[in-house]
Design brief:
Strands 7-6-5-4-3-2-1-8-9 form a nine-stranded mixed sheet. The protein is built from 14 helices and nine strands. The two termini are 39 Å apart. By secondary structure, the protein is of the alpha/beta class. Helix 1 packs parallel to helix 2. The longest helix has 17 residues. The radius of gyration is 20 Å and the shape is globular. 45% of the residues are buried. The structure holds FE2/S2 (inorganic) cluster. The site of FE2/S2 (inorganic) cluster has 10 residues, from helix 13.
């Protein structure tokens, strides 16, 4: 089998973050700051990625602007011909920093917003004053000539304000908005009962998104991700296991996806020990669920086999206890009825209070 290089490298520069979002998708066990790769190690990762034919690098975290060497890493990636995207909460950005990042070759910023309502957004992120800082960051980003995507993470506490968030994205000069419902991994899974929207909420939101896409053609692009639990078919998670993306953790572990460490039996190599291209081609974790040979009955004979690539392995693990099972959010899975029941029970659980994420959490 010929293994094409990945399209993109997700570089998680740090797990440090001043926000405490209740839906954080990072793993339950965070990499401590002392274990982070240094600037030289990250530059080597970027060189190796460029040599492999990777086209894009997404600097994320945690909060990637916590790293003082971010500008140097952006410049290095740009110098190697990579398209450079920054995924940030924006709360640590300054005019000077944004100008330096633009000068270094940053092309695009995905700026996360928790809500259109300042108080409610700050209640979800656990960060007071964050909303104003995000608005200021958006102005700095567009002012520096950088492309802006407005990332809106949706759950039952803000689902009613999707229209206001869309208006806000347009007013801030975003070219794209990602209306992405919480995906239940990591800390988000921990808080699922307090975040899941109802089926009615979802239907209203979907109708609004469809109508808005038509109305706003040429003004803003709308990407839309529904909560998996209500989907008919699973999403093509990461574009298929070990097909399009590789993820390097702050400490240098190379993963097929950010939640892969929840799957027992996988062996993860570190960029400190093995070349990136060798890990991609021959690493045990990458080979385990690549392509179609691993697929269970039901996926193997499905005509969507190469559309959704079996869905999400981490979700199959979390919800069925075996990553090699069909993703149970697929309507063809024998376990699918149970998933709908979980979603409906969670959505009806008004007593569930979300627990904040902090960097110290195990
Ligand atoms: Fe790991 Fe979907 S998050 S395969």
């Amino acid at each position: 089998m010929t293994i094409e290089p990945p399209l993109a490298l997700l570089a998680e520069l740090t797990h440090r973050c001043p926000l405490r979002c209740v839906y954080c998708s990072n793993p339950l066990a965070l990499d401590p700051s002392g274990s982070e790769l240094d600037e030289a190690a990250w530059k080597s990762v970027l060189d190796q990625a460029a040599d492999m034919g990777v086209l894009q690098v997404h600097f994320s975290g945690g909060e990637p602007t916590s790293r003082k060497d971010l500008e140097a890493l952006v410049a290095h990636a740009d110098g190697r011909g990579l398209y450079v995207n920054l995924i940030t909460s924006g709360v640590m950005l300054t005019e000077k920093r944004v100008a330096a990042l633009a000068e270094a070759g940053l092309a695009h910023v995905q700026l996360g917003f928790q809500d259109s309502d300042a108080a409610r957004g700050e209640a979800i992120s656990g960060y007071k004053g964050g909303h104003e800082k995000k608005l200021a960051a958006a102005a700095m980003i567009t002012g520096a000539g950088l492309a802006l995507t407005f990332n809106a993470v949706i759950h039952r506490h803000n689902v009613a304000r999707v229209p206001e968030m869309l208006d806000m994205a347009i007013a801030l000069g975003a070219q794209r908005i990602e209306i992405a419902n919480v995906q239940y991994y990591g800390w988000g899974l921990h808080n699922r009962a307090s975040l899941m929207p109802t089926r009615d909420d979802l239907d209203r939101m979907t109708a609004f998104v469809e109508e808005s896409r038509e109305r706003l053609k040429g003004i803003i692009v709308i990407d839309y991700v529904i909560p998996d639990y209500y989907a008919s078919y699973p999403k093509s998670c990461m574009g298929g296991w070990a097909r399009r993306f590789m993820n390097v953790t702050p400490a240098g572990k190379v993963l097929p996806c950010h939640a892969a460490e929840t799957i027992p039996g996988l062996e993860f190599d570190n960029v400190k020990d093995r070349p990136l291209a060798d890990i991609w081609q021959n690493g045990q974790a990458f080979g385990k669920y690549r392509a179609t040979e691993w697929m269970p009955e039901g996926c193997r004979d499905c005509d969507r086999q190469k559309i959704d690539w079996g869905g999400c392995r981490c979700q199959a693990m979390a919800l069925t206890g075996d990553a090699a099972n069909m993703d149970p959010v697929c309507s063809k899975s024998p376990l699918n009825a149970g998933i709908r029941e979980i979603a409906e029970a969670d959505a009806a659980d008004e007593a569930a209070d979300p627990v904040y994420r902090t960097f110290q959490h195990p």
